[in-house]
Design a protein that fits this description.
The complex is a heterodimer. Chain A is an alpha/beta fold. Chain A contains 15 helices and ten strands. Chain A is 45% helix and 14% strand. Chain A has an eight-stranded mixed sheet, with helices on both faces. The longest helix of chain A is centred in the first third of the chain and has 24 residues, at 8-31. Chain A is globular and about 70 Å long. By secondary structure, chain B is mainly alpha-helical. Chain B has 13 helices and one strand, in the order H-H-H-H-H-H-H-H-H-H-H-H-H-E. Chain B is extended, with a radius of gyration of 34 Å. Chain B starts with 10 loop residues before the first helix and ends with a strand. Classes of the chains: A alpha/beta, B mainly alpha. At the A-B interface, helix 1, strand 1, helix 3, helix 5 and helix 6 of A face helix 1, helix 2, helix 3, helix 6 and helix 9 of B. Strand 1 of chain A pairs antiparallel with strand 1 (409-410) of chain B, so a sheet runs across the interface.
Chain lengths: 354, 411
């Protein structure tokens, strides 16, 4: 039997209704006002070039003894971790009594064209860690890396283990060449040198385009068609707009750092195959002997679970814990379930380790 | 569906009524947000089914025009663009489905005959996207893919235009980069020897020739691959509709058909995009685009040099020099801080033992390591240094001893 059980006039009415909703939604969209992101109270405690080190105001009196530094990716803006009150990893960690710092990398411009991974990892991150150590009078801090920031944190912990008490990574690529890693598959034949020499800094929009083309029909079409249904709900619209703001708020990538990251990780898979050097120093994952907590998402199409799980096999730590989150790369920070599961899991794991 | 399908539907009135409602909605929306009656001209013949779809899209496009010229759109403007783009896509999809309905209008075709009509519709759609059978296929593929290729156009050199760009001449002569007869035109253009007053320009263009040809070939290869994905998605759609027809399941709304189409598109894309052919083809296009842009930059640099103006290479050289100086200053600051610190500071405890080392390391050796660390800590306490980080809550007090960060801009 013909599988369409609706009549042509019903189809037309559906289109009319859709169009009316879209038209009304445009009105609502102009009325929602400015889209605010970053909900938790914070202060800038250290700056260097474009970098700002944020310290979040504690939400409880008795803080856990060791501060946590969150290292975010260069690719998007870090307010994803503190999007709004009911969708904030940072707020969740603060409620659990953790003392939280975050590196905001800022927006790279022409002056940052030659920043490389050594500058980011052995420079910026190291100086932030030392600053926090001095501020809290401690030798080591807890490091929490997110996505590419997790890869940076792994490299940092491998090169400076004496500064890291516990390492936590979330949706972090380690094995960049798993079979299901589409980004790596595409990047393997790209002449990265020509791209960087031509563009200098690599525009964030170009990276965004790459991410969207991984699921082109869904991410550029269906997502918005679905959104039309809730355009008349101002709260839902605001939530949607926050996510949209974040998705398209992509800083340009410092040319040299991009070149190194693509070549050393995506093309050579340096963490897995060995031989990775950053700033002339060998990165030896076996130096990571501190406790490690690895959170990955089962539906992550950007960092497939196997890409994250590979961490277990390359580090020297005997205290390794994995946490599986049923969701996607972004859902792990913003979904309702993530708020209930991720911050308590991280905090409890840290508290057990002193 | 067979029983419900009307034998004679008044298609013209159906579309005409729908369109009137849509115009009314968009006009209201415009009045509401612009604060000023917005003059929209309804289509000359709103009751023509052929013009109906255009009319719907025009209503949206008037809106879009308000947002398109912004070079740096706000999140709201960007969301509007994307919503409008997707809305247009959905309406276009609805229009195609509507056309399909017209094919099934004759009640006799609705029984088991629908499978034959469906197959012929799928074959027609494939021709629509086949670059070898249809000159507009490439453009249609781009439309079907919507926003991603909008961004690609931005990256592609064919869209780059700047004063004095010699390659612009080539592009003008070639017309659209999707044009089919580009190869012959290019070969002719690059075959003649450079002579006369413009020979320098001709030489530059000839130097760029192989790169431009590589770009054109890569783009054509990529477009052909996209058409494969389009074909494959249609095959998957065909199969799933037949499966649905053979089962008890059905699709009771236009949106559900659209969602099925999206699933088929994603599945087809995933099949192709995970293969080596796509990775190589995509990389070939990316590499060709950037080689060509690099050529354009070199040409521009030559022109700027002749005008005694700084080139991209000059500026990058200066930035690199500043960066290297910045690194040297940091290194020196770090060494200086270490020297200042050294005489009055005990070494930090040694890092934890490396688990990757040979397993013959006894537990006693590990205990000795820990003892050494504890002794160092005790020594610190004796000297009046507060090293109780392991026992007390953190104190956000003034720094006890400054490390490299002492010279940093602590706020």
């Amino acid at each position: 039997m013909f599988p369409f059980t609706f009549r042509p006039d019903q189809a037309v009415q559906e289109l009319v209704r859709f169009n009316q909703k879209l038209a009304n939604g445009m009105k609502t969209l102009t009325e929602v006002g400015p889209i605010e992101v970053g909900c938790s109270a914070r202060e800038v405690v250290y700056t260097e070039d474009k970098l700002k080190l944020m310290h979040f105001k504690p939400l409880v009196e008795n803080l856990h003894r060791t501060p946590v530094l969150i290292v975010y990716a260069l690719v998007n803006r870090p307010y994803m971790a503190d999007l709004q009150e009911d969708r904030s990893l940072i707020r969740g960690l603060l409620k659990q009594g953790l003392d939280v710092y975050l590196i905001d990398w800022g927006y790279a411009d022409g002056a940052d064209r030659y920043l490389n991974l050594d500058d980011y990892i052995n420079g910026y991150i190291k100086r932030c860690v030392e600053f926090i150590c001095d501020r809290h009078d401690v030798y080591r801090i807890n490091l929490l890396g997110i996505c590419q920031g997790g890869t940076f944190s792994i490299c940092f912990a491998a090169m400076h283990p004496e500064l890291v008490r516990n390492l936590i990574v979330t949706v972090t690529p380690v094995d960049f060449q798993t079979k299901d890693n589409l980004l790596s598959h595409w990047a393997r034949h790209v002449d990265v040198d020509t791209v960087v020499e031509t563009l200098g800094n690599v525009p964030g929009d170009l990276l965004n385009w790459t991410f969207l083309t991984m699921k082109p029909f869904r991410l550029t079409g269906q997502k918005y068609v679905d959104m039309v249904e809730v355009l008349d709900d101002k709260d839902k619209l605001r939530n949607f707009m926050r996510m949209e703001k974040w998705i398209f708020d992509s800083p340009d990538q410092a040319g040299e750092a991009y070149r190194e990251f693509l070549k050393e990780f995506y093309q050579k898979n340096g963490l897995m195959k060995g031989g990775l050097t950053i700033g002339g120093k060998k990165v030896k994952p076996e130096n990571i002997t501190m406790p490690v907590f690895n959170v990955y998402a089962t539906e992550d199409h950007l960092v497939p679970p196997d890409a994250s799980r590979a961490l277990k096999g390359i580090i020297g730590s005997k205290d390794y814990t994995e946490m599986t989150f049923k969701g996607g790369h972004i859902g792990i920070y913003v979904s309702g379930r993530a708020q209930a599961e991720i911050p308590p899991a991280i905090a409890n794991w840290l508290k057990e380790r002193g | 569906m067979a029983d419900q399908f009307p034998g004679s539907m008044d298609w013209t009135n159906l579309w005409g009524d729908a369109q009137r409602q849509v115009w009314s909605a968009w006009t209201d929306a415009a009045r509401g947000s612009m604060g000023d009656p917005w003059r929209m001209k309804p289509p000359s013949n709103p009751f023509s089914p052929e013009s109906a779809m255009l009319g719907w899209q025009d209503g949206m496009k008037n809106w879009m025009r308000m947002f398109m010229p912004q070079p740096d759109p706000t999140p709201e403007e960007l969301a509007m663009r994307n919503l409008m783009g997707a809305g247009e896509q959905f309406l276009r999809f609805g229009n195609e489905i509507f056309k399909s309905f017209q094919k099934f209008q004759d009640g006799t075709k609705v029984g088991e005959e629908w499978t034959r009509v469906l197959s012929s519709s799928i074959e027609e759609a494939k021709k629509f996207f086949n670059p070898e059978q249809n000159a507009q296929a490439a453009q249609r593929l781009i439309e079907m893919w919507g926003i991603p290729l909008e961004a690609w156009k931005w990256a592609a050199p064919s869209q780059v235009s700047f004063p004095g760009d010699p390659l612009a001449l080539l592009r003008e002569q070639m017309g659209s980069p999707m044009a089919g007869s580009w190869k012959g035109q290019l070969e002719k253009m690059f075959g003649s020897p450079p002579v006369g007053f413009s020979r320098e320009l001709q030489t530059q263009m000839q130097d760029a020739g192989p790169e431009l040809m590589e770009y054109q070939e890569a783009l054509q290869e990529y477009t052909t691959l996209l058409s494969k994905i389009a074909n494959r998605s249609l095959d998957i759609l065909h199969k799933r509709l037949l499966e649905l027809g053979a089962s008890d399941k059905s699709l009771d709304s236009l949106y559900k058909v659209y969602a099925l189409w999206v699933d088929c598109g994603e599945d087809a894309f995933a099949e192709v995009a995970t293969g080596d052919e796509y990775a190589k083809c995509n990389a070939r296009l990316v590499n060709a685009v950037f080689k060509l842009r690099q050529r354009q930059q070199k040409m521009t640099d030559r022109m700027l040099t002749s005008l005694n103006m700084p080139t991209k290479a000059d500026i990058e050289g200066a930035v690199k020099m500043v960066h290297e100086l910045r690194r040297r200053v940091r290194e020196l600051e770090s060494k200086l801080a270490a020297q200042v610190r050294a005489p009055r500071e005990e070494p930090r405890p040694a890092p934890a033992p490396k688990a990757a080392e040979p397993d013959d390391r006894s537990a006693m050796a590990e205990l000795r390591e820990q003892m050494r660390a504890l002794t160092a800590e005790l020594e610190n306490i004796r000297q009046g240094r507060d090293a109780e980080e392991e026992e007390e809550p953190a104190k956000a007090a003034a720094p006890r001893k400054k490390t490299v960060a002492s010279r940093a801009k602590g706020v």
